[in-house]
């Protein structure tokens, strides 16, 4: 993967970035995504944020190599602390992290007023997708698109949120938060493959919990409910 040839996962994230966007890519690693989008003429400005010095240095080299130092700003910062008001960011991408970490970055950014609440959020959690959907709902974002894809034998979900007016609250059901309001309806082959895997994992966990000396009743009930939902969506 490089700035000219993004991975399938990052290419799908980039496809959800609007034309002419002012982008903040948080956890940008080598800055492949903002550099690729800038070289393609799709975005007008980008901040590549990195909290780790090694990837930060790699991102700086990538931007300089492509002559984009005036259009892609690389900053060493924790999460959305990489963004300042003058950036006028309208789109945020966070990809390749756990859902809990993504939501903590968003929450810290909201509380620190680095996230205004009117940005388009394009989020790709490696795990914990439900946590991401719950945060979006709790913070008045509507899920407007979802994608599921497989790459190198791993399955990834991409969740896109847009601001929802507070006076028009949108409430997702527990099943929609669990499967995704779009993915749970589409049920494409990769979705089916994921939930067949998850079904096996949960059956194994359930068996282990039931054999425990003091079986945790609430956790067992939760997994049984999830297994019932999974049974409903599988063919």
Textual characterization of the structure:
With 235 residues, this protein is α/β, with parallel strands linked by helices. The chain has nine helices and seven strands. The mean pLDDT is 95.
Fold blueprint:
Blueprint: H1 8-15, E1 21-26, H2 32-39, E2 43-50, H3 53-65, E3 72-76, E4 91-97, H4 99-111, E5 120-125, H5 129-138, E6 141-151, E7 154-163, H6 174-179, H7 183-186, H8 189-210, H9 217-233
Parallel strand pairs: 1-2, 1-4, 2-3, 4-5
Antiparallel strand pairs: 5-7, 6-7
What proportion strand?
Answer: 15-25%
Major sheet description: 7 strands, mixed
Taking all Cα atoms into account, the compactness measure Rg is: 19 Å
Compute the number of helices: 9
Number of strands: 7
The helix content is: 40-55%
- The overall pLDDT, averaged over residues, is 95
Write down the oligomeric state: single chain
Low-confidence stretches: none
Shape: elongated
Strand neighbour order, sheet with most strands: 3-2-1-4-5-7-6
Tell me the distance between the termini.
Answer: 35 Å
SSE run: HEHEHEEHEHEEHHHH
Structural class: alpha/beta
């Amino acid at each position: 993967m490089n700035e000219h040839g993004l991975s399938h996962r990052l290419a799908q994230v980039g496809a959800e970035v609007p034309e002419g966007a002012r982008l903040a890519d948080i956890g940008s690693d080598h800055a492949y995504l903002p550099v690729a989008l800038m070289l393609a003429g799709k975005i007008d400005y980008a901040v590549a944020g990195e909290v780790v010095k090694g990837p930060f240095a790699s991102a700086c080299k990538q931007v300089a190599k492509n002559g984009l130092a005036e259009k892609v700003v690389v900053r060493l910062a924790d999460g959305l602390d990489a963004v300042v008001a003058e950036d006028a960011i309208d789109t945020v991408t966070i990809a390749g992290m756990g859902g809990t970490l993504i939501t903590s970055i968003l929450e810290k950014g909201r509380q620190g007023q680095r996230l205004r609440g009117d940005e388009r959020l394009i989020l790709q959690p490696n795990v914990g997708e439900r946590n991401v959907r719950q945060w979006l709902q709790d913070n008045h974002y509507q899920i407007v698109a979802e994608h599921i894809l497989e790459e190198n034998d791993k399955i990834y979900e991409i969740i896109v949120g847009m601001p929802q007016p507070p006076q028009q609250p949108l409430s997702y059901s527990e099943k929609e938060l669990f499967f995704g309001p779009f993915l749970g309806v589409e049920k494409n082959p990769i979705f089916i493959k994921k939930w067949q895997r998850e079904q096996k994992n949960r059956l194994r966990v359930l068996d282990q919990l039931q054999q425990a000396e003091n079986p945790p009743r609430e956790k067992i009930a939760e997994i049984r409910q999830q297994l019932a939902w999974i049974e409903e969506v599988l063919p």
